[in-house]
C-alpha cells in the first residue's frame, strides 16, 4: 500500500479564508492541499454582495466585530488591512467602487474575486480538491492524518477554514466546531447573525407592511445603526435590522428611531405651522404613506394636529424616537448572513490563529468567534485571519524543495 501523501499544510474549506490562506502558504513555498466538500470553491463569495462581493470595508476596526474577547481580532486585522486587500484586487485589474459607509464592491462580478483567489493559489502551486467530504482527522506523532474520499494525507499543519453553519443549503456545516471539540477547544454557542428578525402575531399590523422600507436608527444591546429598515411578511429586515440582529438575544427589545434627525419639538412646530394638517400627513412627509398610517393607528391618534395637545405630540415624538419591537425570533441559520459565536478565541493565539494546546492546528475565518458588522467586515476578517495563519505555518526544510 502506498504511504499517505505528505503536505506542509492541509487546509479544510475552500471558501474566502481557506483560499487566501492556501495561496499565502503556497507562495511561501509550502506544499499545500486545499479540500472542500462542495463541488466548487468560494460559493459564498459568489453570492455575496448581491453577486458583486462587498470584499472589504475601509472603516475596518476591531470595534466593528463581536466576540467574547473583543481584543482578539486586533492583531490579525492590524497586520492585513483593507488597503492590503485592495492592492491585491487592483493588481488583478478588478474594477471596484465604494458604495456607501466604506463598503467596497466589484464593479462587475464576485466571480472575479474567486478567480483572483484561484489564480493566487495556482501561483503557489496549491492542490485544490473539491467534491469530497473529509471523513476523519487524527493526530499522532506531530502529524495530522486527514481521510477524504478514498485518500489519506499527512501534514504537520492543519488549517480549519470550514466557516459556520449559516445558509446550510450552500454547503455550510458545523464541521469546524466538531473538529475543534475533538481537539479539546471550546465553542461559544453559535447563533444566527445578520439575520431578519420575526415579529409576533400581535404585530400583524406591521407585518402587513411587507416591502415598505425607511431609514431608521436601530438600537439593540448598546449598538446603534442608521440605515434602512425593511418590513417583511415575517417581521423586520434591511441593513439596520440585520446589524442590530447580531446584538439581539431572545427577549430583548430592538428600538427603531423613525424619522432620525428631526429636532426635538418638530411635531409641535408642525402643529403651529399647519394646524389643519393631520398627523398621518405630517408623518408621511418623511415616511412611506402606509407606514405613517400604521404608526398613527398604533398611536391611536387621528384628526387635525391643531386638535392634539402639545403634551400628546411630545409623547408621539418620544415614541417615534424609540419605537420598541420585541421580536419573537429570527429567520435562523437558513437566512443568516453569518454565524456569531464559534470557536472560542481563548484557546487560540491571536498572532498565528494556532490552537494554544494543539500544535499545528490553525483555525481561521467565520468558524472562529469573531463576527463582523454588515458591509465587508466579515470578508476582511477572513482575509486577515487567513493571512496571519498563512504566514505563521512553519515548514520542515525536507518538504520545501
Ligand atoms: C448571502 C451572503 C452574502 C454575504 N455577503 C457578504 C459580503 O458582501 N461581504 C462580507 O464581508 N461578507 C459577506 N457574507 C459573509 C461571508 O460570506 C462569510 O463571512 C465568509 O465567506 C466567511 O469565510 P470562510 O472562509 O470562513 O467561510 P466560507 O466562505 O463559508 O467557506 C467555508 C468553506 O468550507 C466548506 N466546508 C464546510 N464544511 C465542510 C466540510 N465538512 N468539509 C469540507 N469542506 C467544508 C464550504 O463548502 C465552504 O466552501 C455573506 C454571506 C452570505 C451567506
In brief:
The protein has 401 residues and is an alpha+beta fold. The chain has helices spanning 16-27, 43-47, 74-79, 82-91, 111-123, 175-182, 204-207, 239-245, 266-273, 279-283, 289-299, 310-321, 377-392, 397-400, and strands at residues 5-6, 9-12, 32-36, 54-57, 65-66, 96-98, 103-106, 127-130, 134-140, 143-148, 151-155, 158-160, 187-193, 197-198, 213-220, 223-231, 235-237, 254-258, 323-325, 329-330, 338-343, 361-363, 371-372. Helix 1 runs parallel beside helix 5 (111-123) and helix 1 (16-27) packs parallel to helix 13.
- List the domain count as a whole number: 2
**How would a textbook summarize the main sheet?**
7 strands, antiparallel
Full CATH superfamily name of the largest domain: FAD/NAD(P)-binding domain
The amount of helix comes to 25-40%
Report on this model:
The chain has 401 residues and is of the alpha+beta class. It has helices at residues 16-27, 43-47, 74-79, 82-91, 111-123, 175-182, 204-207, 239-245, 266-273, 279-283, 289-299, 310-321, 377-392, 397-400; strands at residues 5-6, 9-12, 32-36, 54-57, 65-66, 96-98, 103-106, 127-130, 134-140, 143-148, 151-155, 158-160, 187-193, 197-198, 213-220, 223-231, 235-237, 254-258, 323-325, 329-330, 338-343, 361-363, 371-372. A seven-stranded antiparallel β-sheet has the order 19-18-15-16-17-14-20. A five-stranded parallel β-sheet has the order 8-3-2-12-22, with helices on both faces. A hairpin with a 2-residue loop joins strand 10 (143-148) and strand 11. The model has no long low-confidence stretch (mean pLDDT 96). Flavin-adenine dinucleotide (FAD) is lined by residues 12-18, 35-38, 43-44, 47-49, 53-54, 133-134, 161-163, 166-167, 171-173, 175, 337-338, 365-367, 376-379, 382.
Amino acid at each position: 500500500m502506498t504511504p499517505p501523501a505528505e503536505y506542509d499544510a492541509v487546509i479544510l474549506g475552500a471558501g474566502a479564508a481557506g483560499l487566501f490562506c492556501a495561496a499565502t502558504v503556497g507562495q511561501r513555498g509550502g506544499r499545500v492541499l486545499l479540500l472542500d466538500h462542495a463541488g466548487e470553491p468560494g460559493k459564498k463569495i459568489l453570492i455575496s454582495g448581491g453577486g458583486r462581493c462587498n470584499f472589504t470595508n475601509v472603516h475596518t476596526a476591531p470595534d466593528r466585530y463581536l466576540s467574547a474577547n473583543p481584543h482578539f481580532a486586533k492583531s490579525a486585522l492590524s497586520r492585513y488591512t483593507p488597503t492590503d486587500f485592495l492592492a491585491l484586487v487592483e493588481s488583478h485589474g478588478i474594477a471596484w467602487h465604494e458604495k456607501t459607509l466604506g463598503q467596497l464592491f466589484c464593479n462587475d462580478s464576485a466571480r472575479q474575486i474567486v478567480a483572483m483567489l484561484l489564480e493566487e493559489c495556482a501561483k503557489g502551486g496549491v492542490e485544490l480538491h473539491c467534491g469530497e467530504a473529509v471523513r476523519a482527522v487524527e493526530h499522532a506523532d506531530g502529524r495530522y492524518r486527514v481521510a477524504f474520499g478514498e485518500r489519506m494525507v499527512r501534514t504537520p499543519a492543519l488549517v480549519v477554514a470550514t466557516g459556520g453553519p449559516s445558509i446550510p443549503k450552500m454547503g455550510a456545516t458545523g464541521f469546524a466546531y466538531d473538529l475543534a471539540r475533538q481537539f479539546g477547544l471550546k465553542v461559544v454557542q453559535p447563533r444566527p447573525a445578520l439575520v431578519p428578525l420575526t415579529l409576533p402575531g400581535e404585530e400583524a399590523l406591521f407585518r402587513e407592511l411587507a416591502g415598505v422600507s425607511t431609514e431608521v436608527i436601530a438600537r439593540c444591546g448598546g449598538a446603534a445603526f442608521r440605515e434602512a429598515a425593511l418590513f417583511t411578511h415575517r417581521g423586520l429586515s434591511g441593513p439596520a435590522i440585520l446589524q442590530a440582529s447580531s446584538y439581539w438575544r431572545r427577549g430583548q427589545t430592538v428600538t427603531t428611531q423613525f424619522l432620525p434627525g428631526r429636532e426635538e419639538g418638530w411635531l409641535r412646530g408642525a402643529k403651529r405651522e399647519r394646524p389643519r394638517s393631520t398627523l398621518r400627513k405630517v408623518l408621511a412627509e418623511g415616511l412611506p404613506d402606509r407606514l405613517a398610517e400604521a404608526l398613527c393607528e398604533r398611536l391611536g391618534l387621528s384628526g387635525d394636529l391643531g386638535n392634539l395637545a402639545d403634551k400628546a405630540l411630545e409623547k408621539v415624538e418620544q415614541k417615534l424616537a424609540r419605537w420598541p419591537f420585541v421580536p419573537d425570533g429570527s429567520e435562523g441559520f437558513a437566512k443568516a448572513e453569518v454565524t456569531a459565536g464559534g470557536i472560542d478565541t481563548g484557546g487560540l493565539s491571536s498572532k498565528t490563529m494556532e490552537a494554544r494546546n494543539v500544535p499545528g492546528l490553525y483555525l481561521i475565518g467565520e468558524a472562529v468567534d469573531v463576527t463582523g458588522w454588515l458591509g465587508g467586515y466579515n470578508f476582511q476578517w477572513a482575509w486577515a485571519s487567513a493571512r496571519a495563519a498563512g504566514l505563521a505555518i512553519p515548514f520542515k526544510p525536507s518538504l520545501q524543495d
